[in-house]
Amino acid sequence: MTDRELINRATQATKNAYMPYSKFAVGAALECSDGSVYTGCNIENAALGCTVCAERVAIFKAVSEGKRSFRRIAIYANSSQYCVPCGVCRQVMQEFSPDMELLCARSDGRYVSYPLGRLLPSPFGKEFL
Q1: Cα–Cα–Cα angle for 62, 12, 34, nearest 5°?
Q2: Cα–Cα distance for residue pair 92/11, rounded to 1 Å
Q3: Which of 10, 44, 84, 106 could disulfide-link 76, Cβ–Cβ 3.0 to 4.6 Å?
Q4: What is the DSSP secondary-structure string of 6-68?
Q5: For 125, which DSSP code?
Q6: Cβ–Cβ contacts within 10 Å for residue 15, how many?
Q7: pLDDT (tens digit, 0 to 9) for every residue of the chain, 129 residues total?
Q8: Distance between CA atoms of 100 and 12, rounded to whole angstroms?
Q9: Sign of the torsion formed by the C-alpha atoms of 87, 74, 94 and 45
Q10: Catalytic site positions
Q11: Which CATH code fits 3-128?
């Protein structure tokens, strides 16, 4: 799958976002090591702490289907800024695939690529437990 195809899947996922409070739809498309792809969208809740980001929805869907290793994730929002994951999502990514690539896209079709380690330096991992 090309970068553009993965970003297009993330873009499509925004159509399912439930964001009545922020009005900010985010979509994610996660490519697993076996080539399978899981999508997610942000899901808000009136109790804001219950809100779940698109990235974690995609990751949790994959994990619930037995996947544990990921190549990359595309993240898209209809914004002039690149859509980068929050700290909680970065930590969840670290749990499963510390070497994964992140494709962060914006509304004009441009995107940037980051290794997870660049966005989450000195992560907390299993070795600390």
Answers
A1: 30
A2: 21
A3: 10
A4: HHHHHHHHGGG-B-TTT---EEEEEEETTS-EEEEE-B--SSGGG-B-HHHHHHHHHHHTT--
A5: -
A6: 9
A7: 999 999 999 999 999 999 999 999 999 999 999 999 999 999 999 999 999 999 999 999 999 999 999 999 999 999 999 999 999 999 999 999 999 999 999 999 999 999 999 999 999 988 889
A8: 22
A9: positive
A10: 55
A11: 3.40.140.10
Dist. CA 125–CA 127, nearest whole Å: 5
In this prediction, residue 81 carries a pLDDT of 96
The domain segmentation of the chain, as residue ranges, is 3-128
Give the pair of three-digit tokens for residue 89: 């999502």
Residue pair 25/18 in contact (Cβ under 8 Å)? The answer is: no
* Dihedral sign computed on CA atoms, order 88, 93, 98, 101: negative
pLDDT the model gives residue 40 = 98
